[in-house]
Write a structure and sequence with these properties.
Elements lengths: L20 H8 L1 H25 L4 H27 L11 H7 L8 H29 L3 H28 L2 H21 L9
Helix pairs in contact: 2-3, 3-6, 5-6, 5-7
GO biological process, one term: tRNA modification
Protein name: tRNA-(Ms[2]io[6]A)-hydroxylase
GO molecular function: tRNA 2-(methylsulfanyl)-N(6)-isopentenyladenosine(37) hydroxylase activity
């Protein structure tokens, strides 16, 4: 996405703001955005389940991911309600290029805890970007019901971002988590920079 040459920091430490064209595209294609959003919530729940399956020995992780999975699935159900109210169906799933590119930077090999840290921080960044997009929708779209809906989800996603970072610091030294998060924030900005605004994507 194109941005100003001197982008300012956005909420939750993101280094590159969303292209302002995205909101206009999203509002004109709200059915596609809601469908993609539904799948994003479904994938977030699945990601939490995958972490539980992969790291069942991490008691704190299992507890927090169990709560997160339930919350993300409730978000999926709420998006489905919004689709139904507007006479839309779920539609087909579509690849999330943003998440695919970000996930490539989860390092393989080394200590399990280092891999876990990367998984948690990538999830944190997805939540942060979702939070930023929800804030844009809340502040800019005309549909009052969706404004309220996206405000509530914005607050929730911000909490998830903070939770993932804190959880990473349960299993790795805080300074290492902070350093890796800084690296991934730069990577995330590069990914956003290369993606064009899409009418059928939340990310």
């Amino acid at each position: 996405m194109s941005t100003a040459s001197q982008p300012t920091k956005t909420i939750l430490r993101l280094e590159l703001p969303t292209d302002p064209r995205w909101v206009n595209i999203a509002e004109k294609n709200i059915e596609e955005i809601l469908v993609d959003h539904a799948y994003c919530e479904q994938k977030a729940a699945t990601s939490g389940i995958s972490l539980i399956v992969k790291y069942p020995d991490k008691e704190r992780l299992v507890e927090e991911m169990t709560e997160l999975v339930a919350e993300e699935w409730s978000h999926f159900e709420r998006v489905m309600e919004q689709l139904k109210k507007r006479g839309y169906g779920l539609g087909r799933n579509r690849p999330d290029e943003y998440v695919v590119e970000l996930t490539k930077h989860i390092r393989k090999g080394g200590k399990r805890e280092r891999q876990l840290m990367d998984h948690l921080l990538v999830n944190a960044l997805v939540e942060a970007r979702s939070c930023e997009r929800f804030k844009l929708l809340w502040k800019n779209i005309q549909d009052e019901e969706l404004q309220k809906f996206y405000y509530e989800l914005m607050v929730s996603e911000a909490g998830h971002y903070v939770g993932f970072v804190k959880l990473a610091k349960e299993y790795m030294p805080a300074e290492e988590v902070d350093a890796r998060l800084k690296e991934l924030l730069a990577i995330e900005a590069d990914i956003i920079r290369t993606l064009e605004p899409r009418p059928d994507r939340m990310h």
